[in-house]
Design brief:
Blueprint: E1 13-17, H1 21-32, E2 37-40, H2 44-53, E3 55-56, E4 60-64, E5 69-72, H3 75-79, E6 82-87, H4 91-101, E7 110-113, H5 126-136, E8 145-149, H6 154-158, E9 163-169, H7 172-182, E10 187-192, H8 195-217, H9 222-242, H10 253-264, H11 269-278, H12 283-289, H13 295-310, H14 315-325, H15 330-338, H16 345-350
Parallel strand pairs: 1-2, 1-6, 2-5, 6-7, 7-8, 9-10
Antiparallel strand pairs: 3-4, 8-9
Helix pairs in contact: 4-5, 8-9, 8-10, 8-11, 8-13, 9-10, 13-14, 14-15
């Protein structure tokens, strides 16, 4: 169905689509500052528990939702008359959910992706998936599509710990509106216009975090981790520039900031995957043990294929892909990284 058009007014609500840890944290942040929020969850039993307990005990235990957050199971109820829709659905299910969301959007609705991944089948970022979906539905409306990301573990945001992120839209006014929506006394939001750059950062940092975890699992020290983060950043930058991103984005919050957090933080699911790989577990064993999605596992395949399409040299990405999908040994991968031909650093960053 299609919602009736309605001018944005103060009483209109925000829809958060996805009730995992990050979606729940963002809904809580907005609800705590007085915004009316509809939090959509795919599983009815999870939504029912959210209504009853006011807590997401499965994905974000200990964070109580204010009464301004209303968990719902119907997308129509969540999206209709929302002035801002925040998409927090894992990348592998993103298109299917947005195909249902798109016809419900009003002309003035701002749509923000808070997902750090890519679609395997098309190699598209989440804003590209949304744009493609709108085109396939013959939707000729201009809907502002943006992205929010940066160094931000859900549990720390839910706990009110100081955090800084960036929101990017091609339309600066849209970015400013979302900036004001999310900004609080502890959650600082910067604006930008490099949507593709931020999305490449958000996706690739998870891949590098898996590699960092592998190094930690193998027992390597801080020298190794620092080298990996630095060279991983060079790979991210190379790919991003080839895809039209602004180089400065990669030294910002969504680039270096999120990369450092994800490669070093104990709450990083992607680093945890790498840590277990480095200690000898198989990918199948690791995924069976996990209750939450580690986007980097699927994103490694997407970014590997993107790098080949754009003819970008990305040795850390390539070795991580071979560990995950070709059963290469972790120590062998490290040896091959260090046995490559020697280069000048500036050359290896930009080419």
């Amino acid at each position: 169905m299609r919602c009736r058009e309605k001018a944005r007014v103060k009483n209109n609500h925000v829809a958060v689509i996805g009730a995992g840890s990050w979606g729940t944290a963002l809904a809580k942040l907005l609800g705590d500052k007085g915004e009316k929020v509809f939090l959509w969850g795919h599983h009815p039993e999870l939504v029912e528990r959210l209504r009853r307990d006011r807590e997401n005990k499965k994905y974000l235990p200990g964070a109580l939702l204010p009464e301004t957050v209303m968990p719902v199971t119907e997308l129509t109820e969540a999206v209709c008359e929302a002035w801002c829709v925040v998409m927090v659905v894992p990348s592998h299910g993103y298109r299917a959910v947005f195909e249902q969301v798109a016809p419900l959007l009003a002309d003035s609705t701002l749509v923000v992706s808070a997902v750090k991944g890519m679609e395997n089948s098309t190699l598209q970022t989440m804003t590209q998936v949304m744009g493609d979906t709108l085109n396939r539905q013959n939707n000729t409306r201009f809907l502002p599509l943006g992205v929010l990301c940066g160094p931000s573990f859900a549990a720390e945001v839910a706990a009110g710990q100081p955090t800084a992120v960036t929101v990017s839209f091609r339309d600066r006014d849209a970015a400013c509106q979302v900036q004001k929506l999310f900004s609080t006394s502890f959650f600082r939001v910067y604006t930008g216009t490099d949507v593709i750059g931020m999305e490449i950062c958000a996706a690739m940092k998870n891949v590098i975090a898996i590699a960092a975890g592998i190094g930690d699992g193998l027992g390597y020290g801080l020298n190794s981790r620092a080298a990996l983060i630095t060279r991983g950043l060079a790979e991210m930058t190379r790919l991003g520039i080839k895809m039209g991103a602004q180089p400065a984005t990669f030294s910002g919050l969504s680039g270096l900031g999120d990369l450092v957090l994800t490669c070093t933080g104990g709450l990083s699911r992607n680093r945890a995957v790498g840590l277990k790989l480095g200690k000898g577990k198989t990918l199948e064993q690791i995924l069976e043990e996990m209750t939450m999605v580690a986007e980097g596992v699927k994103t490694t395949r997407s970014c590997y294929n993107l790098a080949r399409n754009f003819e970008v040299e990305m040795p850390i990405l390539e070795q991580t892909y071979q560990i995950l999908y070709e059963n290469k040994g972790c120590r062998q991968a490290v040896q091959e990284l260090f046995q490559r031909s020697l280069k000048e650093e500036s050359e290896s960053v930009h080419s």
